[in-house]
Records
---
Amino acid sequence: MSSPSETDLYPPVKAFLEGQGYEVKSEIAGADVVGMRADDPDPVIVELKLAMSLALLHQALERLKITDFVYLAIPQVSARKTLARHVALCRRLGLGLLTVRLRDGFVEAQCDPSSYAPRKVKARAGRLLREFQRRDGDPNRGGAAGKIVTAYRQDAVRCALHLAGHGPCRGAEVKAATGVGRATTLMRDNHYGWFEKVAKGTYALTERGRQETGA
């Protein structure tokens, strides 16, 4: 049995569009599939590919310079998460997506072309703004991988340095001395393993804390 090719997608896609009243022709001015309807001046363009790719997206985005009605057509995707990602990406780019079941030519429109306005998530925006405001300076390099110096880590370092210089302290003392409002909670949670509770409300710096902060 031979491997499928892009041309195998054409008959099902053509039949699908013809079923909606389009006159369909292939390879028109570089476009794989073009459909026209007598009552609509705007063509429908479909680009055929055996898999989602960056080249396919670039190709489809070029077609948006011609018409708002641009679809990608790919073979049926069995993995639901993968299909959901493809649909989300197409929606963000204003493209439609058709999937073709090659064994019987069944075509399904997963999404239609439309303008996309992402829903803003206020909680995420709030976290971003709080982190920006709390972070001291700009200690990281954009695009860097690995450990990122966050505002939380900066606060932990301030607490650690205070304990290194003053010995075990109550949380309220560390808060007053460092200006870290969450000092007690931060030391109690001990996210980095730098602190240890030595008495009620009193914390000391661990050896790991000394090593990792240079205290």
---
Amino acid sequence: MIQTDRKKHGTGVFPRDARHSATIIFCAKDDRFEKVAEHIGLRTGYFVSTAHDGEEAIWILRKLLSRSTLGRMVLVTEFSLPGRSGVDLCRFVRSQARLSDTSILIVSEEEDPQKCIEGLEAGADDFLREPVSLREIESRIGALLRRSERKEKKGGPWSFDRIEIDGLVVDTTRFEVRLHGTPVHLSHKEFTILALFVSRPGRAVPYDEFLDFVWGEHADRSRENLKVHIHALRKKLAGAAYIEAIRGFGYRMRDTSPAP
């Protein structure tokens, strides 16, 4: 396990004033993330740990939960691991209230698109398919941390604090969603999509507005990627049938649930 605590601050893809402000956990069945882990630790002063299976990653996460404050956290994991899989790690993180703001990046050799959907539905924020360079992994981590930093400083990009629509409660100050009183655990992108929906109840929202709001100029912005996240969001809303597809245009969220 690598745990780096150096004085040199990061530049470039990482936020400024990084020292001690973030924790990065890498989980892979071999040493494939060792170089990027060491590089990030040396450049930024982040707390960096590596695990070689899901059980070790969960042990690290449980140790971190004993801290009084957690700060920003990113988990980078392979999809396939000995014992607990990357999807199992996602579910563990999303089951812990104090880890709700943790960003998760899955790196996978799987070519089946269903695997990507499975990871996103389990709570991953981003998904990379092999082959992928260590530089790209580093860039994605930096993007996730910048997003977390903006959320900390500005309370997120949302135009409201709390909205309730027919039993669905979205609270941007607490980064919480409840459906008829039951917590709904969402990834950052799913939460952002839902926040855009509820800020425009009953209105049709075009594809491009979602892509601009959620992905900006990121290379992953595509209608297909949006559809994957919408599909995952619908499932997590437990069949509430709030979201409607408008063919050739975008999506709409009903301001009331449809009659049975």
---
Amino acid sequence: MAAFLDRRDPENIEDSDERFEDRAGGWLDVMAAAADLHPITRACMGFHLWSLAGLGQHGDQIEAAVTAARIAASEGKGAVFAPLAMGGAGGLRAGGPPADRLARWLDGMETACLTAMRHLDDIEAWSVRAEAEMTSLSGKTPRALRAVLTEWPLVSAPMGEVLTNASRAAVQRNLTWMEARGLIREVTGQGRFRLWAAARS
């Protein structure tokens, strides 16, 4: 684990100090002892024990969250996709007894899944509306660009060019047309390195 995460102990670490490999080994031992728990429960446990074991850097929870996601999806009987952060910070909040942390984790998963489903419904409705409004446009670029904006949350002109296999001018022309009709919105407010998103209602 130390090699994979590229964690090196300081050269002057004392023999009495706990090394990263020891901390990681302790975390792995506790997780192995919890092998009979459901993957979603183990994911919550692994997430909260990560920082307690001293495995994170400067309070960074990304590695803990990714590790928890891998645990939750393990064995094919856990969560294939659980966008926990979409449910707000409650599910990731530390503190309290383990039962409270697990309850917040499960509530956060439910809220996040509902939020994600609502987002997907909004994108589907946007795609139908955009298709209806773009029927007057000819060529393959409008249809391809609509598909890109359905699949990606943010799209730049160079990205649209690559994903649609169209010229930059065609992509830019269609983005301008879509923005003028309120189908998309520019989110950066800049003149350069601009990004667009579907204007969901």
